[in-house]
Write a structure and sequence with these properties.
The complex is a heterodimer of chains A (about 150) and B (about 1250). With about 150 residues, chain A is an alpha+beta fold. In chain A, about 45% of the residues lie in helices and about 25% in strands. Chain A has five helices and eight strands; from the N terminus they run H-H-E-E-E-E-E-E-H-E-E-H-H. In chain A, strands 1-8-3-6 form a four-stranded antiparallel sheet. A four-stranded antiparallel sheet of chain A has the order 2-7-4-5, with no helix packed on it. In chain A, strand 4 (about 60-65) and strand 5 form a beta hairpin. In chain A, helix 1 packs across helix 2 (about 20-30) and helix 4 packs across helix 5. Chain A is globular. In chain B, strands 10-15-16-7-17-18 form a six-stranded mixed sheet, with helices on both faces. A four-stranded antiparallel sheet of chain B has the order 6-5-8-9. Classes of the chains: A alpha+beta (about 150), B alpha/beta (about 1250). At the A-B interface, helix 1, helix 2, strand 1 and helix 4 of A face helix 36 and helix 37 of B.
């Protein structure tokens, strides 16, 4: 519950591992600590995003209702960051993010996020790595599909 | 060739009409105006029957009369004119010819039905005649081109040609020409075809145009204003205009029902009967009502009047001119002559005061006489000469004048007194006279003052009413500050003068004459000296003061301009500040003030110089009196008493003279001021404000037609190119276009905010321009791109359009005395007697019965635009301010309980942590937990809490100061560490505020102090106070520094209790303790309802709480109360206190709340900021189902499936009607897109022209 716990938790995430202590404290303070019940929706589609969500505990589910009616779901677990793509590209979210289990998330407001990107090079590096990882996963998923089809 | 017609032709020499006509016709023919063969009676002529020959003769006469008028001005004999003017005259003559013929043509002789039918048929094919109603009922306005058709036909027939379609006269060509000059139009017509009677047709159009709205003004105004050198032709123009006036008078029904208000009959028969009697179709009540000037007539009159007053003595002289000049200001209720205005409006009062003055004169005289008697009879003993020891006092005899018999009646014997008695008696008599004179003066002054004030009130009201009659463009063109300064300040001296206008000179003259005659009576020589000096004063001083008048006028104008400029600058103030141009602007004002100062300086110098001279002259006279009078007295020709009386009387002579001269000065001054003000308020075209018999709604079905509506800006560039289409009522039109283009202009025209367009907008055949303001506002609801919100609550703004019903003056029961007096006084000053505070709301007019239904309708309308949620939010955010009624308190407490119950019900207990007396509220800051109440004053402010003695004592008692200071220290350290080195520390820093609003520098300072602090010494007071202030704002779940534990909480609870228990008496008003059964005064409604703090850490808590609160309220029936509270929110100037959605929505609601039959709504701005524009459009469609809706949007896709669209590209519009297949529409929209890139432009253009034609065809049918 306390700040120290949060800081410890954050430090455990690969994203924040290399951040200096003061910045970490800043993130912990400025971020909004939110608790989501299972099934609660974090982000609606087409919503204007005001911050990124760092999942500290629990799992979230990304659901997309396709044209042909089927739902595709991806699961992201603790340590991941959501919403950064939408915030960085300026395009609204096209999927719904909901909590699969009980989720403890830290919501970093938009300006703080950009501030961190600009002043803490380690953080931006970590975000880039995370994005790259996701792109790689996406690409391999597409390629595999293509092969099967 | 023209010479033949020129010389020797004046009205007197008409012997043989036909010869003359031939001669003139020849002349005219030289200019291709009229074929003279037509005028030759007996052979060809306007037809082969003798009647048409007579027609030709009459035409010729008319021309001759015009010529005669022209020749009245010898200087401009036609030979002396240049070729251009020659032609112009010719054209005008032709115009007059055909105007006359037009009138004559309305009573054609021997017209056979077939020819007429053929003409009508030809017109209908052209689409010129629109069939109204059932069957073939024709509905043409009187004076329309039927007669011109007939005339044209006959002309052509006379020439032996068949009647081609093109022989009918296009009067509408006139309207299509952008600058509307009949002369130029005629020119163009002539260029269009070389046929001889083209000119005739054009001239017929001119003649008809003279009966329309704009031509007289165009004809007179443009020529007069633009070509003042043509003054010689004014006479002709005047007669033309007068003919037009007469024609208008005779043919147009004053109510402009155009005869359609009568029973409808079969078409042709109606036409014929209408021809015989122009007013045939009008019902009785129209005809019997006094022919009052309507638009065309008054315009011509005003034009005439302008002409006369501008150009001086030309034109009909004598009473006609005077009458017409008077009529020229008919639009303005303010007379141009100040004295006439004053006399007209305050006659009775002035006469009463004059009578009082007359009555006071004898008393005045007596008071001069008595000193003489005192000195001579009493002091010098004149009454006791010849051994008389007593004299009679107070003996009155009434002498009848000789024509009543000459008898005399003794009223009282009086009594005998000795010398001392006589002295005292006479002195007392003198005293009584002084008192009486004083009383008279008092009464006269009070009455004068009241008279002046009433007049001032009336004048200000009239000026303001006149302002309300201006056309919208003119209102926008005036500067508000200048108008305010004029109405308030500049007419003030006029009001002050009114009381004096007639009374003062009479009064003063009476006084002066009394004194003068008295002096004369005593001694002729002395009197004549006094008279000479007085005359000298009266002549010299006004001459010297003329310069003062000129300076006064300058000062008035400069003053007004200063006010206007200041107003402008204040309006643009923030912008000027932002660009740093304040010094520049200040120097402008300084310059103006300097000019005013210079004028004043010159005024003062002159004023006091004149005063000096005046005094000098006045004081020289006693010198003469002493010298010459004393000489006479020494010689015995004058006795001492007389001399003393003369000198005493002379004391009373200069003041009235001086005041008379001042009065004259004031008169000149005020007349100038009045003229200046009236000039600004005299407008040529004023709107008619009110309908006489209330507004009748339009019939259910009808048509709105635009005919060549066009608007130019002041440089002649088109703002709207000619547009014609028609809409069936009820119906829907989507007007699509970019912001600032023709779409906005069209909206303004339809909403009657712009009136300077050419072309016509006809609503069921009635031109929009001629509707009165009241009628237009009932029928049309307009909300455009420049919405105005005035200061007041939202509800006031929304209900403004409904405040149009005059409140009932006799509102149940007797009126109280002050009410009655107020009412009378208002009537006497010509002001509106209806009280402003009464209920002006027109419930019946919009179909609701009372206020609750109206509130319901407002709710529905706001819902259409999706603003319901925001109104609730505003309601929630509104503060509860004292005084709070019992009912409100009850409701809030009930609602509070409901909210708590709701929260418990949905098991979201941690959404709000309620305030409980013996529990620590984790989501509230420490200070709130400590005080546990609303702080109504700044006594217990966090920043200074430690210094406040009572709070200090409480904290000390619980030994809370050290822990709090320590907390503060830890907070400082953390914050400084976190935000160190952050370049943008501030932005994020604000977010993490501790409620004490500390600057970052202060925190750094504190950190330094703490670092250097030695544990042994106590902290200094200020530091401690700041640290405690920081700590007081700490909220554990928000800040999460883990600084509060259960022990601290308990201590704070104990402190809370003691704070509450021992609160000193003088602090009772500073804290309002939280109590579940009491309302938190000074807090918002939302805070009151929640009675707790929103929990941190719950996602989206604010929104959820809002929803829950609203649900709870609506479930317990308090939703309406909240809605009402929301509507009571103050809007601020231009709506600056309102959220932007409401700012856009309120003008739209205003337009719809009055249930108009035509709605013109610009929703592009609202849709741009809405999340769901399609739903709003759908709801709007449903809401406006019974009306004709003009929907102005920026994006064609949002117009939905409205069949009729007017699409604007810049100033040009294309009308797209439905009936096109779906595929074509798709192609159209795709082509629109394609048109945006360069490729495919040709295709697009072809498509567009095809669409244009298709649309036009559709629109025309």
């Amino acid at each position: 519950m306390s700040l120290e716990n949060d800081i410890g938790c954050l430090r455990g995430l690969p994203l924040f591992r290399d951040m200096p202590a003061s910045r970490l404290k800043l993130v912990a303070l400025m971020g909004e600590r939110l608790l989501f019940e299972p099934g609660a929706i974090l982000i609606h589609p087409q919503e204007k995003l005001e911050g990124v969500y760092v999942i500290m505990e629990g799992e979230v589910e990304i659901a997309h209702l396709g044209d042909n009616g089927d739902e595709r779901r991806f699961v992201k677990d603790a340590g991941s960051i959501t919403g950064d793509v939408s915030l960085l590209s300026g395009k609204p979210f096209s999927t719904t993010i909901s909590a699969k289990s009980r989720v403890l998330a830290l919501r970093i407001p938009k300006d703080l996020f950009f501030e961190l990107l600009q002043t803490v090079p380690e953080f931006s590096l970590a975000v880039c790595r995370d994005l790259a990882d996701r792109v790689h996963r996406l690409a391999s998923a597409l390629l595999h599909e293509h092969e099967t089809v | 060739m023209p010479d033949m017609a020129l010389h020797g032709h004046d009205g007197n020499a008409v012997r043989d009409d036909l010869d003359q006509a031939v001669a003139i016709g020849t002349w005219l023919r030289a200019d291709h105006e009229i074929d003279p063969a037509l005028l030759r009676g007996g052979q060809v002529g306007m037809g082969r029957d003798p009647d048409s020959r007579r027609t030709g003769v009459e035409i010729a006469r008319v021309i001759l009369a015009g010529r005669a008028a022209f020749h009245r001005d010898e200087r401009a004999g036609l030979a002396g004119l240049g070729a251009v003017q020659h032609e112009r005259f010719a054209r005008k003559a032709a115009g007059r010819t055909l105007a006359a013929a037009d009138r004559i043509g309305r009573n054609p002789v021997g017209l056979d039905g077939d020819a007429e039918a053929a003409a009508i048929e030809a017109q209908r094919e052209e689409g010129r005649i629109v069939a109204h109603g059932a069957g073939d009922d024709l509905a043409l306005p009187l004076g329309d081109h039927i007669s011109a058709i007939i005339l044209g036909k006959r002309v052509v027939e006379a020439q032996g040609e068949a009647v081609p379609d093109s022989a009918v006269i296009r009067g509408e060509h006139l309207r299509a020409f952008p600058d509307l000059r009949p002369l130029a139009a005629c020119d163009r017509m002539r260029q269009a075809g070389g046929h001889g009677d083209q000119g005739q047709r054009a001239a017929a159009a001119i003649g008809r145009g003279l009966a329309e709205n704009h031509a007289p003004e165009a004809l007179l105004g443009i020529v007069l204003v633009e070509k003042p050198a043509l003054r010689s032709e004014i006479a002709l123009l005047e007669t033309v205009a007068q003919d037009a006036l007469r024609g208008i008078d005779a043919s147009l029904c004053p109510r402009r029902c155009n005869g359609r208000a009568g029973e409808a009959e079969g078409g042709h028969a109606k036409e014929r009967s209408r021809r015989d009697d122009p007013l045939h179709g009008c019902p009785e009540n129209h005809r019997s009502s006094h022919l009052r000037p309507r638009h065309g007539r008054s315009v011509a009159r005003i034009a005439l009047g302008c002409n006369l007053t501008t150009y001086g003595p030309l034109g009909p002289a004598g009473p006609v001119r005077a009458r017409v000049a008077g009529a020229s200001v008919q639009g303005c209720p303010l007379e141009s002559n100040l004295f006439r205005y004053i006399w007209q409006k305050s006659r009775a009062e002035q006469i009463i005061v004059l009578l009082i003055i007359l009555v006071s004169i004898p008393f005045n005289w007596a008071s001069f006489d008595v000193p003489k008697r005192i000195v001579n009879d009493a002091i010098q003993g004149g009454a006791f000469k010849n051994g008389k020891t007593t004299a009679t006092l107070l003996d009155f005899t009434l002498h009848m004048p000789s024509w009543l018999g000459g008898a005399s009646y003794k009223i009282s014997e009086g009594f005998q007194v000795g010398q001392y008695g006589l002295l005292i008696g006479l002195s007392l008599y003198f005293l009584v006279l002084v008192l009486i004179n004083g009383a008279f003066k008092y009464v006269i002054n009070v009455r004068k003052g009241i008279l002046g004030e009433r007049m001032l009130r009336r004048m200000r009201y009239d000026l303001f009413s006149q302002l309300m009659r201006f056309r919208p463009e003119e209102i926008r063109a005036v500067k508000p500050a200048e108008i305010a300064s004029m109405i308030k300040d500049e007419v003030e001296p006029v009001g002050g003068f009114v009381g004096d206008a007639f009374i003062q000179p009479v009064f003063l003259l009476s006084q002066a004459l009394t004194a003068l005659v008295f002096i004369m009576a005593q001694s002729f020589w002395l009197g004549s000296i006094a008279l000479l000096i007085v005359l000298a004063q009266a002549i010299i001083i006004p001459i010297l003061r003329r310069e003062q008048l000129r300076l006064g006028r300058e000062r008035q104008i400069a003053s007004r301009q200063l006010a206007g400029r200041i107003g402008e600058i204040v309006d643009a103030g923030p912008m000027i500040q932002g660009h740093g141009a304040t010094a520049y602007v200040q120097s402008d004002i300084a310059g103006r003030l300097g000019r005013l100062f210079d004028i004043r300086y010159a005024l003062y110098k002159r004023k006091f110089a004149v005063k000096f001279l005046n005094n000098l002259l006045a004081q020289i006279t006693p010198f003469f009196f002493y010298a010459i009078g004393g000489f006479f007295a020494l010689q015995g020709r004058l006795d001492i008493g007389q001399l003393v009386a003369v000198i005493a009387a002379y004391r009373d002579l200069p003041p009235p003279i001086k005041e008379l001269i001042d009065w004259d000065q004031q008169r000149n001054d005020v007349t100038i001021k009045y003229d200046q003000v009236i000039q600004q308020f005299n407008s040529d075209e004023t709107l008619v404000l009110e309908e006489e018999n209330g507004v009748k709604p339009l019939p259910e079905k009808g048509e709105i037609r635009l005919e060549s509506v066009q608007m130019l800006d002041n440089r002649g560039q088109p703002l709207l190119t000619p547009l014609s289409f028609s809409v069936q009522r009820p119906g829907m039109v989507a007007v699509v276009g970019p912001q600032g283009g023709g779409k906005d202009v069209l909206g303004r025209i339809l909403g009657r905010q712009a009136t300077s367009y050419t072309g016509r907008v006809l609503i069921d055949g009635e031109p929009l321009a001629s509707m009165s303001v009241e009628r237009a506002s009932h029928i049309i609801g307009y909300s455009g791109d420049e919405p105005e919100i005035i200061a007041g609550s939202m509800r006031d703004n929304i209900l403004l359009p409904l405040r149009r019903r005059r409140p009932d003056l006799k509102d149940g029961g007797a009126v109280s005395a002050p009410e009655h007096r107020r009412f009378l006084e208002a009537i006497r000053s010509g002001n509106s007697p209806f009280p402003f505070e009464a209920d002006w709301t027109d419930y019946a007019g919009v179909g609701v019965t009372d206020a609750t239904e109206l509130a319901q309708r407002i709710h529905e309308l706001l819902d259409v635009f999706g603003c319901t949620q925001e109104v609730y939010e505003l309601g929630l955010g509104g503060k509860v301010i004292p005084p709070v009624s019992e009912q409100a308190v009850e409701r809030i407490i009930t609602a509070r309980r409901v909210v708590a119950a709701e929260l418990a019900r949905i098991k979201q207990g941690d959404l709000i942590e309620p305030f409980v007396l013996d529990r620590y509220n984790r989501n509230a800051p420490i200070v709130e937990n400590l005080i546990f109440g609303t702080r109504t004053t700044s006594r217990f402010d966090s920043a200074t809490l430690l210094f406040e003695p009572y709070a200090h004592s409480i904290l000390k008692a619980e030994s809370l100061i050290e822990p709090l200071a320590e907390m503060g220290g830890r907070i400082v350290a953390t914050v400084v560490e976190i935000f160190a080195g952050l370049p943008q520390g501030h932005a994020l820093f604000e977010r993490y505020s501790f409620g004490a609003h500390f600057e970052f520098e202060r925190l750094n300072e504190l950190a330094d102090i703490l670092a250097k602090h030695d544990m042994r010494n106590p902290l200094d007071q200020e530091t401690e106070c700041d640290l405690v202030a920081l700590a007081l704002g700490y909220i554990e779940p928000k800040h999460r520094l883990n600084l509060i534990d259960a022990r601290l909480e308990r201590r704070i609870l104990r402190a809370r209790e003691s704070f509450r228990k021992h609160l000193p008496a003088d602090a009772v008003d500073d804290v309002d303790f939280y109590d579940p059964d009491k309302v938190m005064v000074g807090a918002s409604v939302r805070d009151n309802l929640m009675f707790g703090r929103i929990g941190y850490g719950v996602p989206d808590a604010v929104r959820k709480v809002g929803e829950i609160v609203l649900q709870a309220l609506s479930r317990s029936g308090l939703g309406e109360a909240l809605y009402r509270l929301g509507l009571d929110t103050e809007s601020g100037i231009r709506g600056r206190f309102l959220p932007v959605r409401l700012r856009q929505a309120i003008p739209l609601v205003q337009a719809l709340v009055k249930a108009p039959q035509i709605a013109v709504l610009d929703i592009s701005a609202l849709l741009a900021i809405s999340d769901d524009p399609e739903t709003i459009v759908t709801r709007l469609h449903a809401c406006c189902a019974g009306m004709t809706l003009f929907l102005l949007v920026g994006d064609a896709n949002l117009a939905g499936d409205i069949p009729l669209r007017v699409v604007f590209h810049g100033a040009t519009a294309t009308v797209e009607a439905s009936g096109m297949p779906q595929a074509a529409n798709d192609r159209v929209s795709r082509f629109e897109d394609a048109g945006r890139d360069d490729a495919g432009r040709e295709d697009t253009e072809r498509e567009i022209t095809k669409r244009e034609n298709a649309g036009r065809m559709e629109a025309r049918s």
